[in-house]
Design brief:
The complex is a heterotrimer. Chain B is mainly α. Chain B contains twelve helices and two strands. Chain B has one domain (3-134, 142-289): ABC transporter involved in vitamin B12 uptake, BtuC (Orthogonal Bundle). Classes of the chains: A mainly alpha, B mainly alpha, C alpha/beta. Chains in contact: A-B, A-C.
């Protein structure tokens, strides 16, 4: 165990970033670069959801709202203003965070089953607004006309390589920040709530305040994922805020493992890779995906990374498994 | 938003009758599906995300049965019975393995089933829309009530669904099985302590829930077209109904299903593009004032 | 710290769980609350600690009226409690449990940039662990602790908040006879060292009569009797209603059990 866990995490992130950024200098593969771009958006989305599900024990079915919100806010800011890309991105994330604060303020006091469904209702409400507010959002056609690829710091995001580099940097920094939140004093409070909210309350934890904090932060990071998604599709589509998208994030979290910080990222990779592979082979990719989910859920009974950790801790039962 | 149109409709008897009828149809079908969801949640504490699939399959089974036998009655019964059986298999083979585990694990299993059966339906019946067609006995001129158009089939549909609601209500309050089910919904430990075979009870509850959803799908088939993925929107709506009514409450499901039906019926006049949004607003508003739902017990 | 209860009343759906209870716990006293199942003992603790509000009556700490305060404000004023069913954080180790509790007490938000617990927190956690005799299991996950250690951890979590009034709901629940005595000796030791005002609910009459310096008997939500062990032992009403002829051990089950919120 290192005495400086924050430093250790930063070094791991740096190493990962160096590797990702180095790959195109050895081998250019548009398919791979696309994949990394999509994973970066999805990983932020899924990991932010896991801040709720895995760390705090709050099951939200409506997390896709903030992913979609980030994408639309960013797309609209880029189309309607002359703001530079980083400013628009930061503003979009800030707006998403405020939206999450408002929705969270309404939802976090509800019981867990109702919380799940009310968050879903908010997402579907947001989706309905996107569909019906055609003049602003383009309705079911989505936000078209592309996102102006203004140059930033000599980066030209119209180039796939630069988009790849941008997404990789943002995703790694975003994940590092989320890791920090999870391991901070605040993260510890969230885990107390997950383990035993009753006891936490009798130790002076103000449950709703901590939950609202988690919900707001998670919404903000999902919004950041949405910004990357908007860059990738060069626009924003209602599907980004639709129910199945939340389902995908939940699936990524469960597939990778709710008990491991990198579980959702791994889940996002597996899910996207699986989608790509299956779509190439058969048009019935729901059938294959469904069978894979069934086998993994009933077979492992937990996410892949959680499963691996369980195996490891069984092999080394001395206790020091973290 | 067109408040003028809404006001105009509300002041015209004909329009009120027509929209009420369509609201009742939506509401009653929704009730049949949501009754199963709320029953299953009440007794098993499982949120059945695959319930829309029962509804869809019920419709398709009825469609094929009609093509073979030519009888609507047989088709509807086949849809309902097939889904009752399917419900038992689903519960035994899959859901029973994840009792008591994370809600998300249950969600995942159901999500997988939804994906698999949407594709299986595509393989068996094709990806295109199917129309089942109105039974010949009802291919007659519509009834006019206070100037409003009411197709006779609609009236029969509403009557059948209402009848089932009554039978279900009486069954739950008068029969031994119904009393056990209600007791289990209130206190599962107590029921198993009383020596009730919970394995059997759970299977029966899934059979009833599946049968009702299949029945709804079969009944709806002549008025709505069949397509893979059709289970999804009804699933979301039946969740809304369940949550608004109070999870586990049959009476709550009936009231909120009719409420949603009416919001749909009249919403299409006043807010044609925002009917869905309206329903979510209703749901959010109700849950904020009564977090346990209309008929739910406060915990 | 002196704990005074004045005319406290709480009803659930028309049934009085606590009715017109007035009791005074002197600063630094060690008192037992006894009574048959369903007597309202746990509800009484819930009302003192602020788990839910009383219908009427007052709770006073050193003369200060805290009746209108919520549970967190009461915690801050020094009321700590442990639960009938040991309540801790199962996925964390004993040390993590206590660090979390101490951190929660010091402030949950603090500096978001800091990963490690604030200065002094770990020391304080170890101090509490030592006090409760949990040092040897510091690295063990709470979920796999023995039942007795879980109960101790629950008490330690309460101690982490530096309470001056400590409410223990059946600290020896579910233990064998030997273990009970070990537990209660530890509790007694804590009381002596920490100069606590300690109130505990207990069913084992041997323990009650030997350990408590004063005893309060609740029955159907009312105070049936209060006094020293000798006074209680010879109180006819208590013998009739509760102790019975044998005057030992837990009374028969069957009365409605008390709900913890």
């Amino acid at each position: 165990m290192s005495g400086r866990p924050a430093l250790r995490d930063a070094l791991i992130a740096l190493a990962a970033l160096v590797v990702i950024l180095a790959i195109p200098f050895f081998h250019r593969s548009p398919a791979f670069e696309d994949f990394v771009i999509r994973v970066s958006a999805m990983a932020l989305f899924a990991t932010s959801l896991n801040l709720l599900v895995g760390t705090t024990g709050m099951v939200s079915f409506g997390h896709g709202m903030f992913y979609g919100f980030g994408a639309y806010a960013f797309g609209l800011l880029m189309q309607m203003t002359d703001l530079s890309l980083p400013v628009a991105a930061v503003l979009a994330v800030a707006m998403t965070t405020i939206a999450a604060l408002i929705v969270g303020a309404i939802c976090v006091r509800l019981g867990s089953d109702y919380f799940a469904f009310v968050t879903l209702a908010f997402q579907m409400l947001f989706y309905s607004i996107i569909i019906s507010w055609q003049s602003l959002t383009g309705g079911d056609q989505g936000l078209r006309g592309g996102i102006p690829r203004r140059e930033i710091f000599g980066f030209e995001l119209a180039s796939q390589l630069h988009l790849y580099q941008f997404c990789a940097v943002v995703a790694v920094l975003g994940l590092l920040a989320l890791r920090h939140v999870t391991e901070s004093r605040f993260g510890r409070t969230l885990r107390m709530i997950r383990d035993n909210e009753h006891r936490a309350a009798f130790l002076g934890v103000v449950l709703w305040r901590a939950r609202l904090g988690a919900f707001t932060l998670a919404g903000g990071f999902a919004g950041l994922g949405g910004v990357l998604a908007a860059l990738f599709v060069s626009g924003a589509y209602p599907e980004l805020a639709d129910w199945p998208n939340s389902g995908q994030a939940i699936f990524a979290v469960m597939l990778g493992g709710i008990g491991s910080f990198l579980g959702p990222t791994l889940g996002a990779m597996i899910l996207l890779a699986l989608n790509d592979a299956v779509t190439r082979v058969t048009e019935y990719h729901g059938l294959v995906l469904g069978l894979v989910i069934l086998i993994s859920a009933l077979g492992l009974r937990r996410g892949v990374l959680d499963y691996l950790r369980l195996i490891r801790s069984r092999r080394a039962p001395s206790g020091e498994s973290r | 938003m067109d408040f003028e149109a809404l006001a105009a409709c509300l002041t015209t008897a004909a329009c009120v009758v027509t929209q009420t009828t369509s609201g009742l149809i939506v509401g009653m079908l929704l009730f049949l599906v949501a009754a199963g969801v709320t029953l299953i949640f009440g007794v098993l504490k499982v949120v059945n995300f695959a319930h829309g699939t029962f509804y869809m399959l019920g419709g398709y089974v009825a469609y094929s049965t009609l093509n073979v036998t030519g009888s609507y009655t047989v088709a509807v019964l086949a849809g309902a019975l097939a889904m009752a059986a399917f419900g038992v298999v689903f519960e035994r083979a899959l859901i029973s393995r994840v009792y008591g585990s994370n809600v998300l694990m249950q969600l995942l299993i159901c999500y997988a089933v939804v994906l698999i059966f949407d594709d299986l339906v595509k393989i068996v019946w094709g990806p295109e829309f199917h129309a089942m067609g109105m039974p010949p006995a009802f291919q007659v001129p519509p009834l006019f009530i206070a100037g409003g158009v009411v197709p006779p089939f609609y009236a029969v549909l509403i009557a059948i669904a209402a009848l089932i609601a009554i039978v279900l209500g009486l069954g739950l309050s008068r029969t031994r099985l119904g009393k056990t089910v209600r007791a289990a919904a209130i206190n599962p430990q107590m029921v198993s302590a009383l020596g009730v075979n919970t394995t059997l009870l759970f299977a029966i509850v899934f059979a009833i829930g599946g049968g009702l959803a299949g029945l709804a799908g079969a009944l709806a088939a002549p008025v709505r077209s069949l397509s893979p993925g059709m289970g999804f929107s009804i699933l979301i709506e039946s969740f809304i109904v369940t949550v608004i009514g109070g999870m586990g409450s049959i009476a709550g499901a009936l009231v909120s299903a009719l409420l949603i039906g009416m919001v749909r019926g009249f919403g299409t006049i006043g807010f044609p593009k925002f009917t869905d949004g309206l329903i979510y607003i209703v749901m959010i508003a109700i849950l904020l004032t009564r977090p346990q739902g209309l008929f739910g017990r406060r915990q | 710290m002196r704990l005074e209860i004045r005319r406290l009343t709480k009803a659930f759906g028309g049934v009085h769980a606590i009715e017109d209870v007035s009791l005074d716990f002197a600063s630094g006293s060690l008192s037992a609350v006894i009574g048959p199942n369903g007597a309202g003992k746990t509800t009484f603790f819930n009302l003192i600690s602020g788990a839910f509000p009383a219908d009427s009556g007052q709770v006073l700490l050193d003369g200060e009226d805290v009746t209108s305060l919520g549970k967190i404000a009461r915690l801050r004023r020094g009321i700590g409690r442990a639960f009938q069913v040991a309540s801790c954080f199962p996925t964390m180790t004993v040390e993590e449990n206590l660090v979390a509790a101490v951190t929660a007490h010091v402030g949950q938000w603090g500096n978001p940039g800091r990963r490690l617990p604030p200065a002094g927190v770990r020391e304080r956690a170890h101090e509490v662990m030592e006090l409760a005799g949990l040092t040897k299991v510091a690295g063990v996950e709470a979920a796999i602790l023995s039942h007795g250690d879980q109960k101790l951890l629950d008490i330690a979590l309460a101690l982490a908040l530096e309470p001056r009034v400590l409410l223990l709901d059946e600290p020896t629940a579910g233990m064998g006879p030997d273990e009970r005595w070990r537990m209660i000796e530890r509790v007694r030791g804590l009381w002596e060292r920490q100069k606590l005002t300690l109130v505990f609910i207990e069913h084992d009459m041997d323990i009650v009569f030997q350990v408590a310096s004063s005893i309060r008997v609740l029955c159907y939500g009312r105070v049936l009797a209060e006094g020293t062990p000798d006074e209680i032992r010879s109180n006819q009403a208590v013998i009739d209603a509760y102790l019975g002829t044998e005057g030992h051990d837990t009374p028969a089950e069957g009365a409605p059990s008390e709900a913890t919120p």
